[in-house]
């Protein structure tokens, strides 16, 4: 058992020889008397008597606001409750003691109490983290006091706790310091027995059996001199383990017998007997007190009955009322039980429904992830082939059918992205980023992406950006682009031979924070008043009868949800056949950089480059497309249809770049990359994936990849990412 701090503060004050004492002096004498009773009872394991005496002492101490004695008595009361494992009450009294000790500015008592709290959490609650916290608080205070006697106890307890946790290297410095202290005037034989026992356990764990044996023998000598049954029980248990390690089974058996002998002595002769005697005496005393109270009540009742029968009638009536109340309480109890049973049933049903909903949400997320990959992979073939055709046959760029094909593929990709985007938002999978971006370039790029649709509908877009708006802002440019794409796309779709106005106005500036109002206005067909509340719902399309407009009905719903992430909302103004205006405000931070450098390289730089690239992809069409795209720029290409082939090619060849598909049979791109990185740390590896960026980005970088490209991709973007990986120093 670990060291327990001095349990009772026994301070004997000289009694006054005066025949007459003041009331305050009498109270002090009473406090002193109960101090003595508390200490004496605790030493005899008479915990109930100790608790009674301590409580009486606390009552008297409150009468004269004796803070020091309140602090000490609450500490003693905590020790008594801890004696028969009432840990909650013990902790409550230790905490009260700390409050009074702090008020008294008594660091010595605070040191004791923190150590006692550590003992409760270590031995009672088995919470070593909390125990170590309190032991270390005790150590801090004792070091502040510079009292070796106070320092020894928390250091020894910290070392003991780490030994019990088998953190032997952490424990060793504390054990060494404790050993140095115990051979001063402050070290008693009990402490010497304990530190020798702990050092024996340390060297046993470190397989230094000779030193372990020496320390165990020393511990046994001191423990037997002091008759420390707790320590002897534990010492012989571990001493037996040492003999087993040394290959001495007979010696181990003999030591184990001694362990069991001391264990029986400990529990039978001290703990159990002491606690049972205390509880019996407590029960007898309580019975006598109850009997005396019962006799007094009986005499009082007889006197009352003898005095007047009227009181008897009142009592009878009261008894009758009490019976009625009990009957009513019993009915309420039955009703309450039924209600609780129903409530438990409902709670069980709700838990099952919650688990089912969580499972459905998980399946939904998995489904959308699979759909993302399965839809984008063939779409990569379509977009890639159209890009190749436009390069092989430049005249096709002006062909209306070819333009329609490219537009249709981009439109299909937009539909897929919208469906996946709304799912990601609903599953709380979207978080705003913070990167510098050029606001003017962003708006221009969004508008330019609609060039085909603008020409088809014969519309014009007018851009106006307030000069007060900084050129470079910090925020999530990707989500802002999605908002603008949906709103401008809607305006173009529902306007023919008309105008679309995109206007950005600075409405507020505080330090580097700029609030910008975005306005997207058109003179198209407009939205009737009665239908304006529904336009932000999912899958809602307000189509005029005379024309069929394509779309999923998700665009404005996505806009609404994305603006919530920016802590903003959208306002709609519209009249039927008179156009529509959407406005919203977003606050961005001004970037300290004056501008964003253009990090792209001219595409013609990559012509006739003598670079060798390995393409790893299991899809035959994707292999052909990717290889053709690279070969048109002069790259040499090898193709691997799975991860194992890629590993063999990477071992036998030197590549300047590896394009790695993520989803492949046998072993996927992540695992293949990890294996390549075991021997090759330098070759750039770029992931090719049809999965959403947020779902795969962290995993890609952790595997050792340098960058990623989401399928299907724009050719210019594709070449720029490859160039950045090949020529990092050029950019």
TrEMBL record:
Catalysed reaction equations from the record: ATP + protein L-histidine = ADP + protein N-phospho-L-histidine
Residue intervals of the Histidine kinase domain: 370-590
TPR repeats: 193-226
The keyword Iron appears for this protein: no
TM regions (residue ranges): 311-330
Keyword Coiled coil: yes
The protein's Enzyme Commission number: 2.7.13.3
Modified residues (4-aspartylphosphate): 661
Keywords: Coiled coil, Membrane, Phosphoprotein, TPR repeat, Transmembrane, Transmembrane helix, Two-component regulatory system
Coiled coil: 336-363
Domain Response regulatory stretches: 612-726
PANTHER family cross-referenced by the UniProt entry: HYBRID SIGNAL TRANSDUCTION HISTIDINE KINASE J (PTHR45339)
Name by which UniProt lists this protein: histidine kinase
Organism: Kordia aestuariivivens
